Amino acid sequence: MDRKVLVIKRLKGCGRMKRDVSIGIDIGGTKIVAGLVTVEGEVLYKQIVPTATEGKEQIIFQLQQMINDLLKEAHKLRLPTLKGIGIGTAGQIDFKNGIVRSGTSNIKDWNDIPLKHEIQRLFGFPTWIDNDVNVVALAESYLGAAKGYNNVVFLTLGTGIGGAVIQEGKLLHGEWGGAAELGHMSVDRNGPACNCGYKGCLEAYASGTGIANQMKRMLRKNPELYDGQIENITARDVFQWASEGKQFAKSLLDKAIDALAYGTVNIIHAFNPSLLVIGGGIIDQHSWIITDLQNRVRSLGISSLVQSVSFKKAAFGDEAGVIGAAYQSFLYSQNVQKEGASNEG
Ligand code: BMX
Ligand code: ZN
Q1: Does residue 318 have its Cβ closer than 6 Å to ligand 1?
Q2: Structural class in CATH, domain 148-313
Q3: Which protein residue has the closest C-alpha to ligand 1 atom 5?
Q4: C-alpha–C-alpha distance, residues 180 and 341, integer Å
Q5: What pTM, to 2 d.p., does this model score?
Q6: What CATH architecture does domain 6-139+318-334 belong to?
Q7: Where are the domains of the chain?
Q8: Considering only Cβ atoms within 10 Å of each terminal Cβ, which end of the chain, N or C, has fewer?
Q9: How far from each other are the two terminal CA atoms of the chain, in whole angstroms?
Q10: How confident is the model at residue 343 (pLDDT cuts 50, 70, 90)?
């Protein structure tokens, strides 16, 4: 298999570091980020590779290669013994047993994988695994945009739409860890089919893949609007066309943000958060969506609930996943305490 490492970031001058350091790995539908992360959330070194599209064996192989590289780098940097390995991955994760139970087709074949035990067996470090956006919630709650807030909802707009909920200071896992798949909240039972099997999910409207798929559908129906290869269209093209003033792209994005607004109101009605943190690749590129979304949400729903919610952009951008993944080891191995909050369980 081709080994494409897209980015390597290396911070200089961290020899003889006294702070705790862990490996954090963020597995998304498009890319895997692995890094050496300090307890303060500083990423000392990181690698990014495109997520293998062949299936789980290849992804596990990629993880192995990346962890080996990180261990070599930790040795070179003369870091103290690592605290452990934390993984955040897209998919429905059995948090207590460390198993990837299932995943949508955003990651091929991503189901029934005892990933925690496999990584522990291979490397001998204590390992933790949770949903990718659940660990974003850890990074943002302990170190970032949600510090000091006890009732927070997190949404990430990327390949898919991921969600996490901090309720009364605790990360909501549900019965085994699958709670808060907020991207799969339907806003229209007659809406577009989602790759989770449901219909009209937020993800089908407003994720990167959702936006691209909607545009492809629109252009197949209206071929006079575009003379390129419809199959190659991405969400990036849609945003570009909208910024050039193309009406069909602007109205598609308007519909996507509208779906998101209705979904967000549902979420606020359910959880009564004081803060909504929004991140992910789409938000990193187009943070204006947050203000637009906030204005729409405030005009919908039960006023006492929707008016009292603040909206913030995730503080760690595309490093939130890798920082949060690593943070699991600091939190669960040392019982790091946040005032009034404990996330275990
Ligand atoms: C999907 C789902 C979620 C994930 C979210 C964001 C899978 C494989 N993924 O809704 O579990 O949190 O995407 O993932 O079931 P990303 O790929 O956009 O980072
Ligand atoms: Zn869905």
Answers
A1: no
A2: alpha beta
A3: 162
A4: 18
A5: 0.92
A6: 2-Layer Sandwich (3.30)
A7: 6-139+318-334, 148-313
A8: C
A9: 38
A10: very low
